[in-house]
Amino acid sequence: MDEFMAAAAIATAHGRLAEGGISIASVSAECGRIGDGGNHRRVRNGDSVTHANIECWQNAGCIGSYEDTILSSTLMPGYLRAGAVVQFGIPKASAGESATVPGVRQWMEFHGVEVVDFDLEECKQLRRQLIGHSPQLWNEDIGK
Predict the structure, then answer these.
(1) Average pLDDT for consecutive 10-residue bins of the chain (144 residues)?
(2) 3-state per-residue secondary structure call for 17-71
């Protein structure tokens, strides 16, 4: 399931990039069913918190409990999204790469979240493309 979810997030990111968007995406699964994905639409929507993980949860709607939910993203979430993972009680998060925000993996694990880092070259390349194309956007996005 983890590998399938990572592939779904990567495909979503490539699709968003082809539309001229940002190459960051997330998908969630509840009880083994892949749910709605999310794209990083912070700039497009003019909303500073509409990151891929947040849109993914918005698309899923209120489901009552997230105890059977897994979140998979192309990049390790930042602290804002990691905080939502912890607060919602999402037990597992996976990412295509984790160089985005150092320390967030350890923070989530400290709070009981199982974290999987696939360390995928394809996700690293998507991140490098974004940084190379829009370094000011990247710096704003990660709070620099």
Answers:
(1) 71 68 62 47 60 62 74 83 88 88 92 94 86 75 65
(2) HHCCCCCCEEEEEECCEEEEEEECCHHHHCCCCCCHHHHHHHHHCCCCCCCCEEE
Domain ranges of the chain: 2-141
pLDDT score at 8: 73
Q: From CA 17, how far away is CA 52, in angstroms rounded?
A: 13
**Residue 55: which residues within 8 A CB-CB, separation 6 or more?**
26, 38, 39, 40, 41
Calculate the dihedral angle through the C-alpha atoms of 125, 135, 75, 83, rounding to the nearest 10 degrees: 170
- Helix (H, G, I), strand (E, B), or coil: what is residue 100? coil
Q: What is the CA radius of gyration of the chain?
A: 14
State how far the Cα of 123 lies from the Cα of 91, in Å rounded to an integer: 23
Residue recorded with tokens 């892949």: 34
Predicted pLDDT of residue 55:
63
What is the residue whose two structure tokens read 């947040």? 54
Question: CA-based angle 25:53:84, to the nearest 5?
Answer: 160
The domain 2-141 having CATH identifier 3.90.1720.10: the answer here is no
